[in-house]
């Protein structure tokens, strides 16, 4: 990129969560291949972020390139209203097959945040169709993050989240404490008692309980036990609420199982959900392997049938680019590529490497906690990082890590080599 182009970027282009008055530095990218990002000055960076959880296969993937090229030769887009096409049908079939059994209806949205909007509207329409017109609020836990559009913002943490500025603009929902930390921790009975009282107080006005299962992502990279999902399911059943799992960040193997909503967590994604089965689930990010924006909201037959019998009879949502053929085609190829390799072994290998190489960070005085789950490694600090400063140091070390707040975290592509993973972790330990 020329100096003039970089100047235009600085003066006119808004980057995520960056000021236009005093923007953070950006690093111009020339290309990307495998787990490496190549800058225009020739430097190569080991990607520690999978482009915000999405590029699980890395970059410039031949199978995904072919899927896009083959579909482009047929059609890049056609409206989904009154029309259909093979890539959408094939993707729907894959999602019904690999997600927890019982999630048989698929709405193909155009971004993760929109898929959460759709999930919330499904829940409200469901309750409305049952005659519960006062059930329009949502129950959730603190520390969550579900997206940046209005509905998802309203169920993000109202105090520690990124959207306090909009408190007077958004609808108000009910929040309980997030589950105690620790994926392997025992169930805290005092917490469960408090959760029961929370449902007792607020459930009569609520449509659903929405949560990120097991990992709260941008809300703080908080890990908690899947045993709490069973309590969420039990209380939703008791009080007539739908249970929504936001698996946009956790889906497609990132935490260990293919989807957290699968009961036994064995990694096949086909177990009967049972005691932790959601009624509605959202997926995105890794859905297309990082190639194109696409997400999906899946629901049970019961949810679809109740909405279909209601006053509106149709789900009141229809994005222009829903079920985009290009995105659907590459999503099918990405799912097939994932399931065609020993992805559980990749996650186990990455988990072991993260645990081994990040361990030394726990001894540093500025570090509060080091935790690893599946293909996610987190170093939590006592104080917020200076993003511009620490990122420049990471780039000088040849790695790409994008911290936020007090968190320096890693979620590399599943194809990263052991040597590259070690270099990535060593850079984090060096500068936290």
From TrEMBL:
Its EC number is 2.6.1.62. Pyridoxal 5'-phosphate binds at residues 112-113, 246, 319-320. Keywords: Aminotransferase, Biotin biosynthesis, Cytoplasm, Pyridoxal phosphate, S-adenosyl-L-methionine, Transferase. One of its GO terms (biological process) is biotin biosynthetic process. It is found in: Cytoplasm. CDD domains: OAT_like. Gene3D superfamilies: Aspartate Aminotransferase, domain 1, Type I PLP-dependent aspartate aminotransferase-like (Major domain). The record marks 17 as: Participates in the substrate recognition with KAPA and in a stacking interaction with the adenine ring of SAM. PANTHER family: ADENOSYLMETHIONINE-8-AMINO-7-OXONONANOATE AMINOTRANSFERASE (PTHR42684:SF17). Pathway: Cofactor biosynthesis; biotin biosynthesis; 7,8-diaminononanoate from 8-amino-7-oxononanoate (SAM route): step 1/1. This is Adenosylmethionine-8-amino-7-oxononanoate aminotransferase. Catalyzes the transfer of the alpha-amino group from S-adenosyl-L-methionine (SAM) to 7-keto-8-aminopelargonic acid (KAPA) to form 7,8-diaminopelargonic acid (DAPA). It is the only aminotransferase known to utilize SAM as an amino donor. It catalyses: (8S)-8-amino-7-oxononanoate + S-adenosyl-L-methionine = S-adenosyl-4-methylsulfanyl-2-oxobutanoate + (7R,8S)-7,8-diammoniononanoate. Its cofactor is pyridoxal 5'-phosphate. Substrate binds at residues 52, 145, 285, 318, 402. It comes from Neolewinella litorea. GO terms for cellular component: cytoplasm. InterPro entries: Aminotrans_3, BioA, PyrdxlP-dep_Trfase, PyrdxlP-dep_Trfase_major, PyrdxlP-dep_Trfase_small. One of its GO terms (molecular function) is adenosylmethionine-8-amino-7-oxononanoate transaminase activity. Belongs to the class-III pyridoxal-phosphate-dependent aminotransferase family. BioA subfamily. The gene is bioA. It is an enzyme of class 2 (transferase). The keyword Cytoplasm applies. Its main location: cytoplasm. The modification N6-(pyridoxal phosphate)lysine is found at residue 285. Homodimer.
């Amino acid at each position: 990129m020329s100096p003039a182009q970089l100047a235009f970027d600085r003066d006119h282009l808004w980057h995520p969560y960056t000021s236009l008055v005093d923007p953070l530095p950006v690093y111009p990218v020339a290309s990307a291949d495998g787990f490496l990002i190549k800058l225009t000055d020739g430097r190569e960076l080991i990607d520690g972020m999978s482009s915000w959880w999405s590029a699980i296969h890395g970059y410039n993937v031949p199978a995904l390139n072919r899927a896009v090229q083959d579909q482009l030769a047929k059609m890049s887009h056609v409206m989904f209203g009154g029309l259909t096409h093979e890539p959408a049908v094939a993707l729907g079939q894959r999602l019904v097959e690999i997600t927890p059994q019982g999630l048989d209806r698929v709405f193909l949205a155009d971004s993760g945040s929109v898929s959460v909007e759709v999930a919330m509207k499904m829940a409200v329409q469901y309750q409305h169709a049952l005659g519960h017109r006062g059930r329009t609020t949502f129950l959730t836990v603190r520390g969550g993050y579900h997206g940046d559009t209005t509905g998802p913002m309203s169920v993000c943490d109202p105090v520690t989240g990124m959207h306090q500025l909009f408190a007077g603009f958004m609808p108000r929902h009910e929040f309980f404490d997030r589950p105690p930390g620790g994926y392997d921790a025992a169930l805290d009975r005092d917490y469960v008692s408090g959760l029961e009282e929370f449902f007792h107080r607020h459930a009569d006005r609520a449509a659903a309980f929405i949560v990120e299962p097991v990992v709260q992502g941008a809300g703080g990279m908080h890990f908690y036990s899947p045993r709490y999902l069973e309590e969420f399911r039990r209380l939703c059943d008791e009080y007539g609420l739908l249970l929504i799992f936001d698996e946009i960040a956790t889906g497609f193997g990132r935490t260990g199982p293919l989807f957290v909503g699968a009961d036994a967590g064995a990694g096949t994604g086909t177990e009967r959900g049972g005691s932790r089965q959601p009624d509605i689930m959202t997926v995105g990010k890794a859905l297309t392997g990082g190639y194109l924006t696409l997400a999906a909201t899946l629901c049970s037959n019961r949810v679809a049938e109740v909405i279909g019998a209601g006053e509106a009879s149709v789900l009141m949502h229809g994005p222009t680019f829903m079920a985009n053929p290009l995105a659907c085609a590459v999503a099918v190829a990405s799912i097939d590529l994932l399931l065609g390799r020993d992805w559980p072994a990749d996650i186990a290998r990455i988990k072991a490497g993260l645990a081994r190489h990040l361990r030394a960070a726990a001894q540093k005085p500025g570090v509060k906690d080091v935790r690893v789950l599946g293909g996610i490694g987190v170093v939590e600090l006592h104080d917020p990082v200076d993003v511009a400063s620490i990122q420049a140091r990471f780039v000088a070390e040849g790695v790409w890590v994008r911290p936020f707040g007090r968190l320096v975290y890693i979620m590399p592509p599943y194809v990263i080599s052991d040597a590259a993973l070690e270099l990535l972790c060593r850079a984090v330990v060096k500068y936290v």
